Amino acid sequence: MVPKNTICLWYNGTALEAAEFYARTFPDSAVGTIFRAPGDYPAGKEGDVLTVEFTVMGIPCIGLNGGPEFQHSEAFSFQVATDDQAETDRLWNALISNGGQASVCGWCKDRWGISWQITPRALLDAIADPDRAAAQRAFAAMMEMGKIDIAAIEAARRG
Predict the structure, then answer these.
(1) Is there a domain that residue 71 lies in?
(2) Residue-wise pLDDT tens digits, 137-157
(3) pLDDT tens digits along 39-92
(4) What CATH number does residue 130 fall under?
């Protein structure tokens, strides 16, 4: 059954490759139905992969091979709440080492230009600390980071 709400991500002929990468990288992720074009279209030929249904951490998505016209931006991102430094490192490194690009404050892009926020739960807890000074210290520490370092966030929080 088709979900009522699905995220559609635009790719330039690489939707299946991206879906397979996400399925290998993130828990509760899988590649579903692959639809091939019933005829030629501006970005491809009859028989080419047109769309791919997939899930990323349980979120239903469709990859559309729409061509080179539109690019992804940071205006859309997947935010992944990680439980520890090992999970943070594994996901960040998987995205970056597969042709992605590191950014700041836990943000990075995958090789297809999709933005990801790899956000440890410890960071979320720290910046929501009811002790305003502790939250400010943790926030200031985060602003200096690429990949989030949980030990450094916790040290900043403690002062």
Answers:
(1) no
(2) 999 999 999 999 999 999 999
(3) 999 999 999 999 999 999 999 999 999 999 999 999 999 999 999 999 999 999
(4) 3.10.180.10
Task: Please indicate, yes or no, whether residues 52 and 112 belong to a single structural domain of this protein.
Answer: no
For residues 152 and 89, membership in a common domain is answered with yes
If you write DSSP's letter for every residue of 29-57 in order, what string do you get?
-EEEEEEE-SS-BTTB-TTSEEEEEEEET
Higher pLDDT, 54 or 4: 54
Q: Are 61 and 6 in contact (CB under 8 A)?
A: yes
- Please, are residues 37 and 44 in contact by the beta-carbon 8 Å criterion? yes
Residue keyed to tokens 């016209």? 69
| Residue 65: partners with Cβ closer than 8 Å, 6 or more residues away | 11, 12, 13, 14, 15, 43, 44, 48, 49, 50, 51
